[in-house]
Design brief:
The protein is α+β, with helices and mostly antiparallel strands and about 350 residues long. Helix content is about 25%, strand content about 30%. The two termini are about 40 Å apart.
């Protein structure tokens, strides 16, 4: 019998982090209920670029987490066959990527760069190539994990908003929702940018801000890029169906910097960077809001003021969802504290 057999856990949030938590917790035998105020992957997850990126510029307090992230996704691929990941590698160059730290990245010459990306018009003299990195479609991956969690007995309640917590003797005993009360032994908050609103109900203040980014999808020619390309002019990848995805910085809310305007400017930049772009039309351009903490690190762990409350606020969410889902489930079910999560504890903000 699994250690979690009979343990009632409510996961709040059905983005990729909440889906990973639900899958791993249910896999340990827990009685899991996922609550989502809207629909699966409707928040930051659905507007994510999807890069499984283990690189980091400068010192990295969560290097151990990043280092394990890619292996965890390979494990998940074997367990959840519907989880589709394209391990294309990632090519990075430019002033902002000169100091990237990645043990497995290699430095390519211009000739080697063109062998990998023959459509580049302006290949640099050198570039870093991380062959082990890849990308997934975040919404598809989230649905795959949710379906896998349901196959293990998890229940998923969408269009169900949290109203509050039931607390007895400083212990969470349940949650109140728009569809009724749910008793639980542990509540796990994985609600993205809504996390600080929910932890405030548990007498814990967390410095999480909603950092906006822009995701653009283009209809264009197939096979323009083979890997993920990140340089000062563009950050792009091409999905299996030929859609070209681009990630851009959010500037402000003026008309000239609206997502649609940035999509048009980015399209011109892509045409200037790549051969073979005979047409490129934006299919969608939207703002995603990622949860970023005051110190830039994830927040993962039990909350200090109320027993039975656990938080998972993660950026980058796509990269770390698999590894944090496993480690958090081991902490919640097995009582096995993770050294890799030590820099992420919410107590650091007390």
């Amino acid at each position: 019998m699994e250690h979690g057999a009979g343990k009632r856990i409510v996961v709040i949030g059905a983005g990729i982090v909440g889906a990973s938590l639900a899958y791993h917790l249910a896999g340990k035998g827990a009685d899991v209920t996922v609550i989502e105020a809207e629909d699966i992957a409707c928040g930051a997850t659905g507007r994510s670029f999807g890069w499984i990126n283990a690189t980091c510029a400068g010192p990295d307090p969560i290097a151990q987490l990043r280092g394990a992230a890619i292996n965890e996704y390979h494990r998940l691929e074997t367990e959840v066959p519907s989880l589709k990941i394209r391990w294309t590698g990632a090519l990075s160059y430019g002033a902002s990527t000169d100091d990237l730290a990645h043990d497995s990245a290699t430095l390519l010459s211009r000739a080697e760069i063109l062998t990998r990306e023959p459509n580049l018009k302006h290949p640099p003299l050198q570039a870093h190539f991380a062959a082990d990195e890849g990308a997934l479609e975040p919404a598809q991956a989230t649905h795959a994990l949710i379906t896998a969690a349901e196959s293990l007995g998890a229940r998923v309640l969408t269009q169900t908003r949290l109203l509050g917590f039931t607390i007895s003797d400083a212990q969470v005993t349940g949650v109140e929702t728009t569809t009724g009360s749910i008793a639980c032994d542990t509540v796990v908050i994985a609600a993205g940018t809504s996390t600080p609103l929910l932890t405030a109900l548990l007498n814990t203040s967390l410095p999480i801000e909603a950092a906006p980014v822009i995701l653009i999808r283009y209809k264009t020619q197939a096979n323009l890029v083979r890997s993920i390309i990140s340089n000062p002019a563009m950050e792009v990848r091409q999905s299996a169906d030929g859609t070209l995805l681009a990630a851009e910085d959010y500037l402000d809310d003026t008309a000239q910097n609206s997502p649609q305007a940035i999509a048009l400017r980015s399209a011109k930049a892509i045409q200037q960077e790549l051969h073979g772009v005979t047409s490129i039309k934006p299919e969608s351009a939207c703002i995603g809001r990622k949860p970023v903490t005051a110190d830039g690190l994830p927040i993962v762990g039990f909350l200090p003021n109320v027993t039975g409350s656990y938080v998972c606020s993660i950026h980058p969410g796509v990269t770390l969802a698999a590894i944090v889902g496993r480690l958090a489930s081991e902490e919640i079910i097995d009582g096995q504290s993770s050294t890799a999560l030590a820099p992420c504890r919410p107590q650091r903000f007390r």
